[in-house]
Amino acid sequence: MEQGRSPRTLDAYARDLRSYEGFISSRGHDVLIATSEDIEQYILSQRNAGKAAKSVARSFAAIRMLYRYLSDESIRMDNPASGVDGVKVPSGIPKALSEEEIDRLLASVGGVDSFALRDRALLEFLYATGARISEVCGLSLGDIDMESGLVRLFGKGSKERIVPFGSHASLAMQEWLSPGGRGMFVPQQWARRDFADAVFLGARGTRLSRQAAWGIVRKYARLAGLADDLSPHVLRHSCATHMLVHGADLRIVQELLGHASVSTTQVYTKVDNEILFAMYKNAHPRANLGN
C-alpha cells in the first residue's frame, strides 16, 4: 500500500503469501523461523506445479517484501530471502496485430445501436491511447476533454498522465457519449455514485468491468477472423508498435504508455519481421520491380 500498488496487485500478493505460508507450515515452520532453503523449496514447488515464470517471480517478490518488512520492523534479525537467487522471466516480444488486422477488428463492429456505439468507442479508444484495460474501465467523465482530444489516465501506483487520442477515437467517443449511446444505459437510479461518473457502462448501468471489456474485445476478434483469445493488452502492444514503426520517439511512447522505465518500452523496437518487411517494401524506392 505504501508503494501505491493497485488493489488487484495487493490481492495477488496476499494470495501468494497465503500460499507460501501454507507451504512453510507443511514443513513444520512458520515465516518467523523459515530459512533460505525453505524459500528455495517453495519456489521449486511452484515451478514443478507448472506455474508461469511471471507468477513465480511475483510470488518471490511478495516473499522478499515480507522479509524486508520483518527485518525493518526488527521482528526478524535476518532476511532469509536476501540469499535466494531471483526468478528469471524470459523477455518475450509483445505480440502486436498488423495495421490491416487492426482495421479488420475495428470494422467488425456493425450497427448503430447503443451497444455497438459503446463497443466501437471502447476498441477505438484502447488502440488510440494504448491504455491498460483497467485504466479505461476506471475512466470518469471528468477525465476526458473531448474538445482538446485529451484524456487523464491513472496508471500503476495511481500515477497520472495525460494522453491524446485521434480523430477516429474522438468521433467514436462522441457518438457513444450521445443520448443514443451512453444515455441509453443510464438507469432511473444509480446503484452507486461512482457509476454515474463512469465513461463506459454495462447494460445495467454499472461501471463496465474488466471481464466485460475482455469479452467485448474477444467477441469482435472472432468476428474479424482473429484469434478468439485476443486480449485488450494486444491493442496496447499494437498502438506502441505502430507508433514506433511510423517514427515516434521512444521516450514519447514511454510517456504515453506510462512506463516507469524506458527499458520496458524498448521491447517494442523489436518489431516483427513481417511488419519490418512490409514497411521496407512500401518505403524503399527499389524494393519492387515495378519501381
Strand and helix layout:
Blueprint: H1 7-26, H2 36-48, H3 53-72, H4 99-107, H5 114-129, H6 133-137, E1 144-145, E2 150-154, E3 160-164, H7 167-176, H8 193-197, H9 210-223, H10 232-245, H11 250-257, H12 262-265, H13 273-283
Strand and helix order:
HHHHHHEEEHHHHHHH
The CATH topology of the largest domain comes to hpI Integrase, Chain A
Biggest beta-sheet profile: 3 strands, antiparallel
What is the domain tally? 2
First-last Cα distance: 60 Å
Total DSSP E strands:
3
Q: Any idea of the CATH class of the largest domain?
A: Mainly Alpha
Neighbour order of strands in the largest sheet? 1-2-3
CATH homologous superfamily grouping of the largest domain: Intergrase catalytic core
Q: Give the integer mean of the pLDDT values.
A: 87
Report the portion of residues in β strands: under 5%
* Unreliable residue stretches: none
- Secondary structural class: mainly alpha
Share of helix, binned: 40-55%
CATH architecture of the largest domain: Orthogonal Bundle
* Rg from alpha-carbon coordinates: 23 Å
Number of helices: 13
Oligomer: single chain
Global morphology: globular
